[in-house]
Protein: Aminopeptidase
Amino acid sequence: MDERIREHARVLVEWSARVERGDDVVVSVGPEAHELAAAVYERLGEAGANVVTTYDSGELTRAYLRAHGDEFETPDHELALYEHADVVLSLGGGRNTSATADVPGEARQAYATASTPVREARMDTRWVSTQHPTRSLAQQAGMAYGEYCDFAYAAILRDWAALADEMARMKELLDDGSEVRLVKEDTDLTMSVEGRTAVNSAASVDYDSHNLPSGEVFTAPYATEGKVFFDVPMTLHGKRVQDVHLTFEDGEVVDYAAESNEAVLSDILSTDEGARRLGELGIGMNRGIDRFTDNILFDEKMGDTVHLALGRAYDSTLPEGETGNESAVHVDMITDVSEDSRLEVDGEVVQRNGRFRWEDGFEA
Amino acid sequence: MDERIREHARVLVEWSARVERGDDVVVSVGPEAHELAAAVYERLGEAGANVVTTYDSGELTRAYLRAHGDEFETPDHELALYEHADVVLSLGGGRNTSATADVPGEARQAYATASTPVREARMDTRWVSTQHPTRSLAQQAGMAYGEYCDFAYAAILRDWAALADEMARMKELLDDGSEVRLVKEDTDLTMSVEGRTAVNSAASVDYDSHNLPSGEVFTAPYATEGKVFFDVPMTLHGKRVQDVHLTFEDGEVVDYAAESNEAVLSDILSTDEGARRLGELGIGMNRGIDRFTDNILFDEKMGDTVHLALGRAYDSTLPEGETGNESAVHVDMITDVSEDSRLEVDGEVVQRNGRFRWEDGFEA
Structure:
């Protein structure tokens, strides 16, 4: 076994999920995540956890949803499983990122709605999602398999404690600040973050962070004004959308354009009122992720990028009891800030050309 | 997809488990049973069942058990899952039938003991175990993969309703009879079946039968006298045991011999008192199973064979409240009755040279 698989398992079980003796753990295993699962089971055995293994296959979901009508019940047995679980580890790894492409939207939506209590019970655990590097993900990234493995482990096997400390600086700046401004090519955008709390997403439940890899600091901005250019490509509704321009007034998108598949952007913006406002401002700080791989779990944490999401805000960024922007969608869009750019908080430059103010080479 | 896979799924869901709309179903999928699982999900979707998929891998079990100490708790989340389930479908299919060979017996035993409530909850559902034909099972049988698939589907895709009707005749003979006698080479054995109820194991929960394939009628004999020769080989504790001779007096084994690995037989017989008495007499009636494949799920149902098990009797064969032979073991041994043999119930021949009394060519 590649020693990096064992290390991935160690980070997941110890740093990310903080598994302890006696924890009731559900491990969800993708068809191609078997090797990572074996390494995780070794760690869970050592930790003295109790384990149930579920199988997460897009092909089985497809077969089931296509054959089913669209009247679903909440599955009581699945709900009972998660209500009694302390930890859920999701080890993604499929054979085809398009495995459910021909499932009708209605069936997908009806099933998701019936499963809401299950999803909520799962979110009440110390859950963490990660991905085993697979040939299917390598293909999606346009990379050879060995090359992709090197990329994935560079992103996953970081010194997370050190990164958490560095990200704490960015969190403090955002928490103390009122207005964030982003300036780069075709971009001059201001957002309010007053009263919002940034999340130091350090790939651990102890940081309210549920993805491995992670490595971003995010908050929920509002009162957005100005224009922004997203030069990192993205796949939305199965289509490649590239070079998006948005213009905001009074917090809402008033103008938009995209170099390719603009209609998809148009669809998203017309979903509901909240889809025209921002739900997230994220600062990508994982420099192990050094390129776009068409996989949002990785892309949005890329070092020297900033992402903004149209749609729903995460509760963790809001004061207790306050609701942020609401929407049925949450669509992340990414812009490269490694060159000719600056990020300001209350008029003070905190990142310029990819360098943070606490780094060597930073120019105020 | 091989059309036989779809047919296997249909038999499993409809005939075996009798799945109905709204049933909470747990499907356990082996690493190589993915294709069968996809066919089963299509059926479960059509039936309108609710599904949770678990992953059953010997390699994960091995990793977990070897790393764990031997102090296990009952996993509450797993117990909750099965307590809320109506149906459990187990789709076996591994990559290596020796996947757990190096797990220490103590860990295996301690885990099994802690999991007893889970196992009992599973047995309280409409559970059915089947196997997807795999290269690993083909290898164990000493067969090419295509050849093995033909064999497996001949065993699984039977006219089960017709076989159930035929087996009902054998059940009636055993239920009405007092004494069974088996005569063949080196064999003249009598057993009492008075007061016991035979199970018509027709691969359906409606027949109290939980294996697919099945195709045997079995009961719990006692007061065994005489000698018996088992000429079908078997793998016990990982070793090939061949040509076993047993001699019974007053229901107990008083003499034994085996052509190979006699020590394994000796170990089994000394497990406990019940290990020296019979717990099962089974009549194999599935003629789709026409050869030994070193897989007990199939072997014991082979047409024109009789099997006897040392050890534990199944409750389903006993009058309500009565306990049969008790033992920590249940070890099936098989004898070929296709030639030069006869099976009698109360002195009347019911099977001679593999022909049953209701069949053409039967000689009383």
Notes: The first strand of chain A starts at residue 24 and ends at 29. The domain at 3-156 of chain A is CATH 3.40.1830.10 (Thermophilic metalloprotease-like).
